[in-house]
Design a protein that fits this description.
Helices cover 31% and strands 24% of the residues. The protein is built from 15 helices and 21 strands. The protein starts with a strand and ends with a helix. With 467 residues, it is of the alpha/beta class. Residues 351-456 form the Pyridine nucleotide-disulphide oxidoreductase dimerisation domain.
Length: 467
């Protein structure tokens, strides 16, 4: 039996942050990992997917500039793109991440953890107890839609799609969410003939114009985007080809099929039933990430199903790590909105970038979500291509921006930008939403000229200056 103040189950980016912040406050910490230290984001999600996308983005950006376009005489060097992607995963080796844990004085326990009781876990037959808390940071797993034959056809999930070492001749992507849209963009840029099918439009849950602009761009690059259709049967033949029958009667034959249709909690084999919780369920938490009905169990990141984004999970981790330490040490706990020990931004101020081309950068509430919450909102939009800085960024720049304004308070509660290179514009909007900066004060935040940030001025002009 080995005792620590805190035991963290899951050594991904979020788990590492829980452990680090608690340890910095004086707690002894162990972290348990069954696979690679660094987790999904480092090896199969954020980093490799963006590495796959970046070269194609850079090439397309060059083609949109007269003078630079004439210098583009070839296509992507696929082998080098894949090699660069591999470098960002350290070739799926975690030596560097393990070295960081050692430097941070956080104990690493290799193996699969199972909760056996309050503050108690077992790893490979050895029992470990926590004096303060156990934090579950096991993330989420991709799901397969219930389509006859799909599982037997050995489809790609997001892991296979971000780690593949060869470009398939053709690829069917099932799902028009963030992962499906990004991976369709990536593999099309690398030369695959891509078909994307989505039950509804692309990027559901975002402002409608975001999915529309991304779908238009994918089609312009040769991706066969089909919305309003579902696969009803999938078969892989003896030659490896995949035949997918759609509910409109069409048949698509591809080299590979990627299911990018959702995530589920990674808690099925965690032993939750030993402490009265449902195996396989998302874990319901308060704003300090404490699981409801317990005083020792925390759930941080995807596993609590609040916001399934790495950066938001790391934000939760900072709050949780310090809250665990404060409770254990008996120091003041700051749980008021925007306090040091809560993740208030999860509710209405989470930023997200979808790295398609055009990019989609958004924060806070869409107009539809704001109205669902009963907020009296007014939304203003502006074409990014009409901004001087955007016109300089790319010839024929196509993009759009909007602000969602809470009329009763005179503050921005949501913003969305769609266009080339808009990701780097997002943090200003995030600060405006989190800081609840009044519209009349935003008039004094002067955007530098000529940059794309001038769209802020144009949006404010469209909204109208307060009397």
């Amino acid at each position: 039996m080995t005792d620590y103040d805190l035991i963290v189950i899951g050594a991904g980016a979020v788990g590492e942050n829980v452990a680090d912040y608690a340890h910095k406050r004086g707690l002894s910490v162990a972290i348990v990992e069954a696979e690679l230290v660094g987790g999904e984001c480092s090896y199969w999600a954020c980093m490799p997917s963006k590495a796959l996308l970046r070269s194609g983005h850079a090439l397309e950006a060059a083609k949109r500039l007269d003078g630079a376009a004439q210098a583009v005489t070839g296509s992507l060097d696929v082998a080098r793109v894949l090699a660069r992607r591999n470098s960002f995963t350290s070739d799926w080796k975690d030596d560097g991440q393990v070295a960081w844990l050692e430097s941070a004085d956080i104990a690493l326990i290799r193996g699969r953890a199972r909760i056996t009781g309050a503050k108690t876990i077992e790893v490979d037959g050895e029992t470990h107890t926590a004096r303060a808390a156990v934090a579950v940071v096991t993330g989420s797993l991709h799901t397969l839609p219930d389509v006859p034959g799909l599982a037997e056809a050995a489809p790609w999930g997001t892991r296979e799609a971000t780690s593949a070492q060869q470009v398939p001749e053709s690829l069917l992507v099932i799902g028009g969410g963030v992962s499906g849209s990004e991976l369709a963009t990536a593999w099309a840029s690398l030369g695959a003939k891509v078909t994307l099918v989505a039950r509804h439009g692309l990027l559901g849950g975002m402002e409608p114009f975001a999915g529309e602009l991304v779908a238009d761009a994918l089609r312009a690059r040769g991706v066969d985007v089909r919305t309003g259709v579902n696969p009803v049967r999938v078969d892989r033949d003896e030659h490896g080809l995949v035949t997918t029958t759609l509910d409109d009667g069409e048949v698509v034959i591809t080299s590979e099929v990627l299911a990018a249709t959702g995530r589920r909690a990674h808690t099925a084999d965690l032993g939750l039933e030993t402490v009265g919780l449902e195996p396989g369920a998302w874990l319901d938490v308060d704003d300090t990430m404490l699981v409801h009905g317990t005083d020792w169990l925390y759930a941080v990141g995807d596993v609590n199903h609040r916001v399934l984004l790495t950066h938001q999970g790391k934000y939760q981790a900072r709050a949780a790590g310090e809250a665990i330490a404060a409770r254990h040490q008996g120091t003041p706990l700051h749980t008021e909105p925007w306090g040091a020990h809560v993740a208030t931004a999860d509710h209405a101020a989470a930023p997200q970038v979808t790295f398609t081309d055009p990019e989609v950068a958004s924060v806070g509430l869409t107009e539809a979500k704001a109205r669902e919450q009963g907020i009296d909102v007014r939304t203003v939009e502006y074409e990014l291509g009409n901004v001087a800085g955007a016109a300089l960024q790319a010839d024929g720049y196509t993009g759009r921006a909007n602000l969602v304004v809470d009329e009763s308070r005179g503050v921005v509660v949501g913003a969305t930008f769609v266009g080339q290179d808009v990701a780097e514009m997002l943090h200003a909007a995030t600060i405006a939403v989190v800081g609840e900066v009044p519209i009349d004060r935003l008039w004094h935040a002067v955007p530098a000229y000529p940059t794309m940030n001038e769209v802020w001025l144009r949006l404010l002009e469209t909204y109208g200056r307060p009397a």
